[in-house]
Design brief:
Order of helices and strands: HHH
Distance between the termini: 63 Å
Number of strands: 0
Number of helices: 3
Largest sheet: none
Radius of gyration: 21 Å
Strand content: under 5%
Shape: elongated
Oligomer: single chain
Length: about 120
């Protein structure tokens, strides 16, 4: 049965990005061809498209929670903290839209690239 705990899933996603970062280090040479970058950028674009929904859903949860009156705060009012958290999540959702647009542009620019093999620098000698 798949794990449905949001915190566990978010931690797994963060760890997957950490593993991805290690795999794309130049020394690892996991990216070889322009098509590799094209595919990876497409997958990252999909990731950013989905993050906005995540932020919106957390914000909706907080709004519902605020309506129950069952929230306390160590300082200030719960409503103020929830409003600020929802504002931050709304900003994050907007930023993911912008990030998606930039990744879409990069993806489009990678589309025509191909690989012709390494350039032999000894030809110039």
């Amino acid at each position: 049965m798949p794990d449905t705990d949001p915190n566990t899933l978010a931690i797994r996603a963060a760890e997957a990005i950490r593993d991805f970062n290690h795999a794309t280090q130049r020394a690892k040479a996991e990216l070889t061809y322009p098509g590799d970058a094209y595919e990876v950028v497409a997958a990252l674009k999909l990731l950013t498209q989905r993050l906005g929904q995540s932020f919106d859903q957390i914000s909706d949860f907080l709004a519902t929670l605020a309506k129950t009156g069952a929230v306390t705060a160590d300082y200030g009012t719960p409503d103020d903290h929830i409003a600020e958290a929802r504002s931050g999540l709304a900003s994050a959702a907007l930023i993911t839209q912008t990030l998606t647009e930039f990744l879409d542009h990069a993806h489009s620019e990678l589309a025509p690239l191909g690989y012709c093999g390494p350039i032999d620098d000894t030809d110039d000698l």
